[in-house]
Fold this sequence. Notes:
Blueprint: H1 2-34, H2 42-80, E1 84-88, H3 98-109, E2 120-125, E3 137-141, H4 144-152, E4 163-165, H5 170-183, E5 188-191, E6 194-198, E7 204-207, H6 210-219, H7 243-249
Antiparallel strand pairs: 1-3, 1-4, 2-3, 5-6, 6-7
Helix pairs in contact: 1-2
Amino acid sequence: MEEMREIKGSMAQMQALFTEQMAVYEGKLHKQSSSDAPATTAGLAAEFSAFKSFMLIAMRALQNQIQATAQAVDQLETMSRRKYLLFHGVPEGKTEDTAATVANVVVAKLKMTGFAAGDINRCHRMGRLTSNRPRPILVKLRDVAVRDKIWFAKTNLKDSGITLSEFLTRTRHEVFMEARQRFGINKSWTREGYVFVVGPDDTRRRVSCLADLDKISVSQAPELSETTAPKSAVVVNEPVAPKTRRAAAGVKK
């Protein structure tokens, strides 16, 4: 991968430069410590400051390369999961045929009468067996079109106790969970491995990392104005009667 080669090249250059500069500084310090003249550290301090600034800039550039590479790898992994779906809440048996179980759910619950176990490439339960609830079933379909047909028919699973979800990468799963926390369940969803949210301005946006969510939250945060100020912040100045009138009110006729 081109990005990985660039990172390896940058790392090698930084390592060589660091070793070279440290050797130079070490030689200068050794020379000054062995001479009779008083050591002057001003020059070394200036050189070290310049070298430190350069290293910080190089490290930031390297971090950007690593982030770009991570996003590229995440995209490739998402594409490799295009035919996958997760079935949650399907009752689990001790000696079950997982493919047949999934096929029965698709035919009976999703009303796809033409579906059969042969449309499944492979499937299995995920996680450790527990007595509390059935484990999710990871299913890889043979055809993307069949996978999408199952996905868009998931509304038929309402009130059945069974749900469908996409097999997201770890990064996108974290983004999706955070999006639901910030924008709500009804305004966050996934499709084809991508995470979508509806922001405060009712605009649909596709996000791929937490930084994208931060941009939406910051750029669309409502500003506090006089019309949106809380009632407790509004002070009503009621007219106060003059002292003479209050005093007169207390005098009996």
